């Protein structure tokens, strides 16, 4: 098992070296045939064409065990599916509509620091403009402190402006905070935040999809934003001008169907224009305090919501993958797993794991040699 | 006809003297049997009980013709249904849920100033706290100027803070503005705004439901708020603390099913707390500019909306009364007007007038001796 996991890690590390973060070809190929098989297939010396040929050519010069070893000596680890600390919520990216910058689940995440990445399942992303106002920075720090004090980690991007205020606020609130970087997790960017980021590496955690040593290219900020949104249970945009990059994070949160909140500000402030546009569009809800954010992200019952709209329905809080599987399960006549997988357009392994979870949640019941929807008291049957 | 109208005016002026603005007994009695008949009935010397007895006793000392004469000499007029300038949109109040302060359509409106009240069909209410910030006052003036410049009148309450900034902004925008007062329209309150309010009386218009000479009692501010909301096509709340009276106006706009907008502000500002609560609750939408307000209030096609949600359906923009009648009209088999009136729970006269309007709007068609819903291309029949 451990040997399998290390083969998986090496295959993913090797493949990740050949393409940029957010590469859809790679994400989809790995989802389809698995990282180990894909890696072996591309290293087989067989004739490849197109992207496969490019990747195969690059793989010839990649030595993942050596890379992983060197990274380990620098205090970095490459966290992959199968690791205890793997934050599996990022896999929802496989089912979120990609952006122009790419998308898909990351092959793995580089981490530097003592805190486990799976802790971030209980985290809030606090993001916003680099050109923030003192109002925005104060609010970001205040919100982050409130979330941190309530036991929620704060995820942000380590940038100047809102990001750094969020990290500092979380620390001031006595909580945990993680910075997701566009450069390699061995580096710090921006340099002005060296002290803060090295403190996070020492006491908390730095995260990156970019290979160690990688520079913070513009493209990597955009693909990084999707990791921030996918790690956190919800995203709050504190300040964002009309075309701010923070709106890119907001877009990912929305496409992941995660709670998205916006902090209002003066309508006379250009730094709030983008947030107000999000609020007007109905994609984000108004957040006036950390309490509002926690209300939105907390699971039902975990935190009392003061003003929810409409009753919650079974399935509302499932991951996109689980929802997709659930929708493929018939209401009356049980279907076999491979038939459900075909309807859902997913792999048999994924579907089988999701069905187990859905059975555990009483949403699906095993019946004969297949599965069908559980019937709930008073609930009408879907079209049979 | 003119004699009839003057009898109506005198009856309404007399009745209005006996009860406070927003009195539901009076509003409902007038709606049921008409002002002239109610007045005659109460003056008949017959034995009355309860509220009717109280009103009858008070009527003995009321001399409406003399009151109207004296008011006319002071430059006041009592505008009632049947007058060309009657702003009939306030009659929607008869179908809005009352508040603890009362409700119902006003019996008439006292006006002082050269502008006709029916011009206010094309108006926006700009309201907010008396204890406003300079931010709020600036925004109120800016929004009001924008609405005024676009040809929309600005209605507000003449109070310090947001109200006076809205009136001044409308004037600065070269437009029309009306103040609805809690005291009689012959008086000015607050005294600090004497100059502004007298200017409105000279060039625009002061409006009040309170009888001439009436003092600005606390209760009258609340019933006054419903007149502001009912006169205007939509209401924008610029600043309001958590328990601000401005939220009372907002509540009326919501119950009238008129567009309600809120201007966001810093979450650190107590003066924006009430507005943010409105926005969070979904009752108000975000307004960041006069343009947003005009988008919300303008009739379809009159002003291009940049971001509407969902397609508009026939009937969406009807008054509550017309909607109620429309809902009572059967889809297939035509029904007689008196049957529709019974289903709608409205008077035969009101229903007959509403049916004429609905026929003119192609929503209802006459069929034999009755009325049925018009069928629209591609639209499914309601339950037949």
Structure description:
- 2 copies of one chain form a homodimer.
- Chain A has 3 domains: 2-72, no CATH class; 109-297, Rossmann fold, CATH 3.40.50; 320-373, Arc Repressor Mutant, subunit A (Orthogonal Bundle), CATH 1.10.10.10.
- Helix content of chain A is 43%, strand content 11%.
- The first copy, chain A, is built from 15 helices and 11 strands.
- Chain A has helices at residues 2-18, 24-33, 35-43, 50-59, 64-73, 134-149, 162-172, 194-203, 218-231, 246-255, 273-281, 290-297, 320-328, 337-344, 348-360, and strands spanning 76-79, 109-112, 123-127, 153-156, 177-181, 205-208, 234-237, 260-262, 285-286, 364-367, 370-373.
- In chain A, strands 1-2-6-5-4-3-7-8-9 form a 9-stranded mixed sheet, sandwiched between helices. A two-stranded antiparallel sheet of chain A has the order 10-11.
- Chain A starts with a helix and ends in an 11-residue tail after the last strand.
- Chains A and B meet through α6, α11 and β9 of A and α6, α11 and β9 of B.
Keywords:
15 helices; Rossmann fold; alpha/beta; homodimer; 3 domains; 9-stranded mixed beta sheet; disordered C terminus; 384 residues; Arc Repressor Mutant, subunit A; two-stranded antiparallel ribbon; 43% helix; globular
Please outline the helices and strands.
Two copies of one chain form a homodimer.
Chain A: H1 2-18, H2 24-33, H3 35-43, H4 50-59, H5 64-73, E1 76-79, E2 109-112, E3 123-127, H6 134-149, E4 153-156, H7 162-172, E5 177-181, H8 194-203, E6 205-208, H9 218-231, E7 234-237, H10 246-255, E8 260-262, H11 273-281, E9 285-286, H12 290-297, H13 320-328, H14 337-344, H15 348-360, E10 364-367, E11 370-373
Parallel strand pairs in A: 3-4, 3-7, 4-5, 5-6, 7-8, 8-9
Antiparallel strand pairs in A: 1-2, 2-6, 10-11
Helix pairs in contact in A: 1-3, 1-4, 1-5, 2-3, 6-7, 6-12, 9-10, 13-14, 13-15, 14-15
């Amino acid at each position: 098992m451990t040997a399998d996991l290390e083969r998986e890690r090496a295959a993913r590390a090797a493949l990740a070296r050949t393409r940029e973060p957010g590469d859809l070809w790679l994400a989809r190929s790995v989802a389809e045939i698995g990282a180990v098989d894909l890696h072996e297939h591309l290293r087989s010396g067989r004739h490849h064409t197109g992207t496969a040929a490019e990747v195969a050519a690059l793989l010839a010069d990649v030595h993942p065990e050596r890379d992983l070893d060197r990274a380990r000596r620098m205090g970095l680890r490459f966290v992959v599916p199968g690791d205890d600390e793997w934050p599996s919520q990022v896999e929802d990216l496989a089912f979120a509509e990609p952006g122009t910058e790419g998308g898909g689940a990351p092959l793995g995440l580089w981490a530097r620091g003592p805190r486990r990445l799976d802790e971030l399942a209980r985290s809030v992303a606090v993001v916003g403009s680099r050109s923030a106002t003192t109002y925005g920075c104060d609010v970001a720090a205040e919100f982050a402190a409130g979330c941190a004090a309530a036991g929620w980690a704060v995820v942000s991007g380590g940038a100047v402006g809102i990001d750094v205020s969020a990290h500092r606020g979380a620390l001031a609130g006595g909580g945990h905070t993680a910075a997701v970087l566009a450069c390699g997790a061995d580096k710090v960017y921006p340099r002005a935040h060296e002290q803060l980021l090295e403190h996070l590496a020492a006491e908390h955690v730095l995260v990156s999809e970019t290979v160690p040593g990688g520079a913070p290219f513009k493209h990597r900020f955009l693909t990084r934003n999707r990791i921030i949104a996918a790690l956190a249970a919800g995203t709050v945009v504190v300040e964002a001008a009309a075309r701010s990059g923070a709106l890119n994070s907001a877009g990912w949160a929305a496409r992941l169907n995660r709670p998205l909140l916006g902090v209002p500000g003066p309508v006379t402030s250009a730094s709030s224009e983008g947030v107000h546009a999000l609020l007007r569009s109905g994609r984000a809800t108004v957040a006036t305090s950390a309490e509002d954010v926690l209300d939105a992200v907390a699971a039902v019952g975990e935190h009392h919501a003061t003003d929810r709209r409409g009753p919650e329905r079974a399935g509302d809080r499932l991951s996109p993958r689980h929802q997709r599987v659930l929708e493929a399960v018939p209401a009356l006549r049980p279907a076999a797993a491979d038939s459900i997988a075909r309807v859902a357009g997913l792999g048999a392994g994924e579907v089988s794991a999701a069905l187990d979870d859905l059975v555990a949640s009483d949403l699906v019941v095993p019946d004969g040699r297949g599965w069908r929807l559980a019937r709930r008291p008073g609930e009408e049957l879907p079209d049979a």
